[in-house]
Specification:
6 helices, mainly alpha, globular
Length: 152
């Protein structure tokens, strides 16, 4: 891989991390103040617990499980949002990635057997879920664009 390509990938990963951290901080802040706030931490805990049980392992206690879920969210969302990339089109890609993740977070947990209440409880919960993931995509795009060597 050429040095320029490696640098662009690194910048995209930094943007993805910024989007993921923003998303997680916003989720954690809202859940402390608004009863209708999405509870993506609960979905993450359920997913980890379900996967571990299927693998024959015992999930950790709730405190540790919650920490695992938050770390897993940041890591997976960082990789996902890094696809917003840098340069031309980062804003469009970030917007589409964020909106898509928000829609998926509302529509998929129920069919996946994780329950729908954490992200689909009320209209406010659904709107906040989509909005928060969109925010993450936009932050990833903003950071990727700011770091881009392609300023055209």
């Amino acid at each position: 891989m050429k040095k320029e390509n490696t640098m662009e990938v690194s910048k995209a990963l930094v943007g993805g991390l910024a989007g993921a951290v923003t998303l997680t901080i916003a989720h954690e802040t809202l859940r402390r103040f608004l009863p209708e706030a999405p509870r993506m931490d609960v979905l993450g805990m359920r997913a980890i617990s379900k996967t571990m049980k299927k693998a024959g392992a015992e999930p950790p206690e709730d405190g540790a499980l919650r920490a695992w879920a938050l770390v897993a969210d940041v890591v997976s969302n960082s990789i996902y949002y890094s696809m917003a990339g840098v340069g031309k089109g980062a804003w469009l890609r970030g917007s589409l990635l964020g909106a898509g993740a928000g829609a998926g977070a509302v529509l998929l947990p129920g069919p996946m057997g994780l329950g729908s209440d954490p992200s689909n409880r009320t209209n406010s919960t659904r709107a906040m879920t989509v909005g928060l993931y969109l925010l993450g995509g936009l932050v990833a795009a903003a950071v990727g664009s700011a770091l881009s060597s392609d300023k055209k």
